[in-house]
Amino acid sequence: MPSITVSSPNLQVDGPTVEVQFLIPRQIEEQYRKDGKPLPPPVSIRALIDTGATNCVVRRIYLALSGCNL
């Protein structure tokens, strides 16, 4: 099972969050480079860690900003 360890100076204020980045997949990046297209920049957001969650939810706007086709 994957795991991470992070430190928060003020967990009570920040809550259980972690910085995440969305990037295009490596295969698409290679195609962009081959086609001479500019790569979309990574999209960084603060994500809430929900230890009881069984799924992951990401707002469409973040995926669109990262260059993902929806």
Question: How is this structure best described in words?
Answer:
The chain is elongated. Helices cover 29% and strands 17% of the residues. The chain has three helices and two strands, in the order H-E-H-E-H. It has one domain (12-65). The chain has helices spanning 11-14, 26-35, 60-65, and strands at 17-22, 43-48. The chain starts with 10 loop residues before the first helix and ends in a 5-residue tail after the last helix. Strands 1-2 form a two-stranded antiparallel ribbon. By secondary structure, the protein is α+β, with helices and mostly antiparallel strands.
What integer is the average pLDDT? 84
| Total number of beta strands | 2
Beta content? 15-25%
Distance between the termini: 29 Å
Order the strands across the largest sheet as they lie in space.
1-2
Keyword list:
single chain; alpha+beta; 70 residues; two-stranded antiparallel sheet
Sum this structure up briefly.
The protein has about 70 residues and is of the alpha+beta class.
Write the layout of secondary structure elements.
Layout: H1 11-14, E1 17-22, H2 26-35, E2 43-48, H3 60-65
Antiparallel strand pairs: 1-2
